[in-house]
Predict the structure.
Amino acid sequence: MGRMTYIDAARQTLAEEMRRDPTVWAVGEDLGRGGVFTQYKGLVEEFGPDRISDAPISEAAILGAAVGAAMMGTRPVVEMRFSDFALCAVDELVNQAAKARYMFGGQSRVPMVVREPIGMWRSSAAQHSQSLEAWYAHIPGLVVVTPATPADLRVLLAGAIRCDDPVVFMEHKDLWALEGEVPDGPVGGDPIAELGRARIARAGTDLTVVSWSAAVHGAMAAAETLGKEGISAEVVDLRTIWPWDREAVLASVRRTGRLLVVHEAVAAGGFGAEIAATVAETLHGDLRAPVRRLGAPRIPISYAPPLEDRVRVTPEAIATAARGMVGQPEAANG
Amino acid sequence: MGRMTYIDAARQTLAEEMRRDPTVWAVGEDLGRGGVFTQYKGLVEEFGPDRISDAPISEAAILGAAVGAAMMGTRPVVEMRFSDFALCAVDELVNQAAKARYMFGGQSRVPMVVREPIGMWRSSAAQHSQSLEAWYAHIPGLVVVTPATPADLRVLLAGAIRCDDPVVFMEHKDLWALEGEVPDGPVGGDPIAELGRARIARAGTDLTVVSWSAAVHGAMAAAETLGKEGISAEVVDLRTIWPWDREAVLASVRRTGRLLVVHEAVAAGGFGAEIAATVAETLHGDLRAPVRRLGAPRIPISYAPPLEDRVRVTPEAIATAARGMVGQPEAANG
Amino acid sequence: MTARTAESPGAPPNFDRQRLLDQYRMMCRIRAFEEAAVGAISDKLVLGAIHPSIGQEAVAVGVCGTLDRADILLSTHRGHGHTMAKGADPVAMMCELFGRAGGCCSGKGGSMHIADFEVGMLGANGVVGANITIAAGAAHAIKLKGEDRVVACLFGDGAINRGPFLEGLNWAQVFGLNVLFVCEDNVFSSTTRTSTMTAGPGAAARAEAIGIPAVEVDGNDVLAVEAATKELLADVRRGQPRFLVAKTYRLTGHTGVDPAPYRPAEEVQEAWTRDPIARARAMLETAGYEAGDLAAIAAAAQREMRAAYDTARAAPWPDSDLAYADVQDVGDPRMVAF
Amino acid sequence: MTARTAESPGAPPNFDRQRLLDQYRMMCRIRAFEEAAVGAISDKLVLGAIHPSIGQEAVAVGVCGTLDRADILLSTHRGHGHTMAKGADPVAMMCELFGRAGGCCSGKGGSMHIADFEVGMLGANGVVGANITIAAGAAHAIKLKGEDRVVACLFGDGAINRGPFLEGLNWAQVFGLNVLFVCEDNVFSSTTRTSTMTAGPGAAARAEAIGIPAVEVDGNDVLAVEAATKELLADVRRGQPRFLVAKTYRLTGHTGVDPAPYRPAEEVQEAWTRDPIARARAMLETAGYEAGDLAAIAAAAQREMRAAYDTARAAPWPDSDLAYADVQDVGDPRMVAF
Ligand SMILES: Cc1ncc(C[n+]2csc(CCOP(=O)(O)OP(=O)(O)O)c2C)c(N)n1
Ligand SMILES: Cc1ncc(C[n+]2csc(CCOP(=O)(O)OP(=O)(O)O)c2C)c(N)n1
Ligand SMILES: [Mg+2]
Ligand SMILES: [Mg+2]
């Protein structure tokens, strides 16, 4: 075990995958200078401008070209810079990349990774802060990855690059500097098998908190606080929301009898609804409290901190919701 | 009361709104010849090519121009032809139209209607059959309308056009020929107030079936069958999924104790999850059976009928699900 | 800045008679395929929309028939002719249109997603202009792998008003990719006369403003289209994108069921006098072929496609469980919970 | 096809001294605003990204300062200068950058969404090129309402590689709209030298290929920019879209914190010799103004923006309940359920 930041994990893993597979290449705006978050720093020096390629400000072409290049036997990793800008290339992702394998009756594969940094950091306002992972989970043909830690970014990026289908890989902009434990040496085992496998970030017995991406850290902080109060929260980090680890979530809720889903995205129509609905459908009789979700209100994200903070799901809000659930008598009307 | 088809309701309502408000205009490909489904037939003759305007095959410009035209005091109705093609203009809809009023601190309004015909009819395959209403319900700033009947298309289109915010208006391609009762005379009352108001399509006592758009008719057919078997199903047609009529749904489920959500869209991450999760959160203790959802499997839509039919939610499937729920003992583990 | 116009050789003294005969045969087969497919609509055998290429066969044959088998083709919603000219089997194509087992996309795609990767045909597309960036990407992979194959990307006159046209052409030129862009100008975009919604001098000028040399050719003259294509492909194989505008005319409606009343009758009549098949036949007669033999070729094409129709009609429906195949490798598409 | 180059009048014998003095003052104020804003980053007062327009003031003043108040402006992420030149209040702008009460967007937008509808400034945009189709639409409404206002749409050299550039220009020309498109060519797109990712002769050629006459001008010569703008606006007001390419240089980094090491030092030094403010000052001295008076104008601008900085810093935070205002008229954005 060594320590590594989220961004170093991103850099190192891409480099390793490019070394092991010459068909892997990356393309996006400003990659030759390291990319907008420096997550490609130093790579052009090793792999040259053909494999770490700059791009014009042409999101539709970046994504559309990746579809063609993937169909022709290469593995493009495309950088969308901010997930918000990927909205300039939705036809290419949803109508083309996601459907090509199926529409053509299995004649083609479209192995590509679409990197879409998501989420709020500070004062980036409505067009640079969105978390739309729920959209892509709703689209047949797409895999959706949302790593919360350096170790997970590492194994899941390797799995995404080796996967034969299009993967929307959503790094969180607020996590780049996060440090964490990472296994030494190259990614081992079968990283593709990690797509769809949740991680029990913290074991607990009183309620299950399901989360992903940056929100996992808020859930962990809340669990810490709750622990001091004698409330034992289990935190499940989904790691990927499609596929999502239904079995792990159901197994945990069977034990705890309570589900709280926490995500940064807008709650209305967020992927938390899918998890809460699935648990309510499947474990209704086992629930000791109604399922609950925490997410952002349905408002655009503001620039001014006091307004921006109104959409943040804080550890305090998570802890408060958890207390309410645990205090709540069985089968009460929430 | 007179009878009218869904498509006549579309034509007549747009014409009436254009007569009452000279700032209303429509733009899209082929509108001068009546539009791809003839829903604009005859309008250019009355209103001329400036107000019933053709457009180049430029979805991004059609939608982006509407944003500018709406900010400048007109009320554009833009025709996207198939909701699938609207994926070529997502930045314009989601980053621009939906956020402009908010980002600019209320300095502007963006009164526009984006018509996006949705859904399956027959053998239109993966790029001409999608139902992505859940996407837009997840986006702050957008209103999402999904009429199931000629009468609702009529009043809701009037409301959408008079609304001061961007509205995604999703007609269902399979309903154009549907005939139904429509109140005589121009749309009365306050049609804007109808946005967010559900309709009890059929009263019942044993379970609540919530649906919208074409799926409502499948739900009604199932309710008919169930009725013959002595199972009384209440069918709630949401009519708009944002805002959605939470109070009406909760009131109905409080009475019936059972919720089944039915929609044509992919079940995973569909808007049914939002409704099921909300009911499970709010009425857990009142439920006599676990909430349930029916939607499409998470696969692209095929061309060949036998494959295409595998994604259809049939009246039979709805009735079977309902029987299971009603037969199911309280608090059983589904 | 005006695009060079490749002169129409008509029947050049020294042209290859046998080659033209083969092209004539292929054009007859495409025409017969389209006619059989349109007929199958009223017979309720083709259930989805189809977009016939009747009148545009010389573009399909002159461009796609000039490609090597290893070369790549990206096509449009009006792609039957392109696909056949690239070497696809019309029986598998007809089965696809009928949604039957044996269809080249297993019945999942239909007309608008017809494809045959075996012959380098990487798909029609239901989204106008979407194939342009995909074609650039296919050529990008070819460059990265150091191959000398080329990619031909065909699209209609209406597609030049979509953003991906600009982005895809700029991409191909910036990266120096082996792409031949072909604008098949059939005057219409659905029910719209494209010129009414297209500003400026047109497709060729737009390509040249992005640095891609463009040539305009009579798209109803198969020899002219082939000659222009051959000349441009020489540059394309060296990493220099090129642009071809083939001027033709859509002799039928937009779809198989569109009577196209928005077209003046005289215009349509005049266009029929430029029918590419009739013109090839005339050249071949001048070159000494018997009218009877040429008519026999057309008749044989009709019989072949009638047989394809019968085979497709007799073919079984695909197993509906195929609906769950080839979605993606990970995850379960079924609604496990309910 | 090459765009006409509007000759740089330098200081034409008969130019309006007072007018140039006002333009010089506005350029000094924009420069001072940008410097104050950049300074506020290290002071932790500006929290979001800002894109300074230092070196590009002559484009803002020459174009936006030439518009009538009733005219409309659509700008970019690098829009502070455009916004001030159109008449917005720098104090309200600074408050917006600081995210404070009194900001022109109530603190909801920040630098990348700065707007002042009062003066016809319909917004900067965080999405490159997105303002082009919006500008066409604003002009579309003007046409439908029979007004004679014009819309000026400014965008960078990198934006010409985005699809909306093609779609928006084609739209404006097809419908005959009052739009002046201005490509502010500052050589870079973020860290990328734009020319390395842009194929062909460039922005002007692309506009003319869509039928829109284009003029190239020295974007560091405020008089030349103003003259070209005035000339083009005469046509634009008659429903003829026009295109202006203003050649300038981004003297700072892409954002307020970008040291821009990817630019050769000599290139930057040379660019500073063409500083538009120094050039205007030189012209004014030649025209008889005292160097001291001109320095005083610059100093006053510094003081004004320092005061704006102090006002913004002293301003309270906006009431956080504003977060729920102006979302939309129908529906409840709160999470009623939980
Ligand atoms: C992005 C998009 N917009 C609209 C359509 C609907 N549509 C299908 S074909 C067509 C006309 C295309 O015209 P053109 O490009 O000239 O090709 P042609 O049909 O003439 O071969 C249109 C508008 C579409 N398929 N995709
Ligand atoms: C669609 C989109 N892609 C990428 C970005 C990220 N981005 C912000 S500014 C910029 C460079 C723009 O260059 P240019 O258009 O020349 O304007 P300049 O910054 O030079 O003023 C980029 C790539 C964006 N904002 N929008
Ligand atoms: Mg055409
Ligand atoms: Mg620039």
Chain B is about 35% helix and 15% strand. Residues A 29, 57, 59, 81, 85, 88; D 51, 76-78, 126-128, 156-159, 186, 188-190, 194, 250 surround thiamine diphosphate (ligand 2) (CB under 6 Å). The longest strand of chain B covers residues 259-266.
